[in-house]
Structure to design on (196 residues):
């Protein structure tokens, strides 16, 4: 720095400006982090693929080539879901919403689904809001990580991740998934009351 000062005053000025910009960017990042509120939820989603209480239907089935690691399945198999979401793992636990969307068998070789669901929340602090979850579900892994890619209402601009687990296989047609949601939403601005 001393050398730069003596021989290259312009270089010193450039360094000072660059450092100031870096400091400003770091402060903005910290402010951005401070101004998000955490969203933590643990939800249970009931996939019922048959019987009178069915909530998941096969849309595309057996069209693609036979699957390499899931006998009886074919690449591209797709299910539409309108699953009940409850507070606890039992289907009799209080309802908190519906998980609506699709699963597609998206790997030709591995047991991997790509999931795209929106959870419409119907009780509690986020009643009337939705949270959008998407990602890769490697079904034989104990815990899978999917992304929280957005939301609406009180969950607008939600971002984060979901730890996704098969919580319980109750029968051939009923399986419960646990969605452990770790996300955040922008916090209301400190001066929101003053300016509105
Ligand atoms: C959720 O919101 C709807 C619409 O405002 C309302 O009718 C319903 O009672 C609320 N449910 C709960 C459990 O708070």
């Amino acid at each position: 720095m001393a050398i730069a000062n003596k021989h290259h005053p312009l270089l010193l000025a450039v360094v000072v400006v660059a450092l100031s910009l870096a400091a400003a960017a770091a402060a903005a990042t910290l402010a951005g982090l401070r101004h998000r509120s955490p969203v933590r939820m643990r939800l249970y989603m009931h996939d019922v693929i048959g019987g009178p209480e069915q909530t998941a239907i096969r849309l595309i089935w057996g069209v693609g080539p036979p699957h390499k690691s899931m006998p009886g399945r074919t690449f591209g198999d797709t299910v539409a879901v309108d699953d009940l979401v409850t507070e606890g793992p039992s289907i009799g636990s209080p309802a908190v919403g519906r998980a609506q969307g699709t699963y597609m068998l998206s790997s030709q070789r591995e047991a991997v689904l790509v999931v795209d669901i929106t959870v419409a929340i119907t009780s509690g602090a986020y009643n009337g809001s939705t949270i959008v979850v998407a990602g890769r579900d490697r079904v034989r892994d104990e815990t899978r990580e999917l992304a929280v890619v957005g939301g609406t209402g009180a969950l607008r601009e939600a971002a984060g991740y979901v730890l996704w687990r098969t919580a319980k296989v109750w029968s051939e047609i009923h399986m419960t998934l646990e969605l452990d949601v770790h996300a955040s939403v922008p916090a209301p601005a400190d001066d929101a009351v003053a300016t509105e």
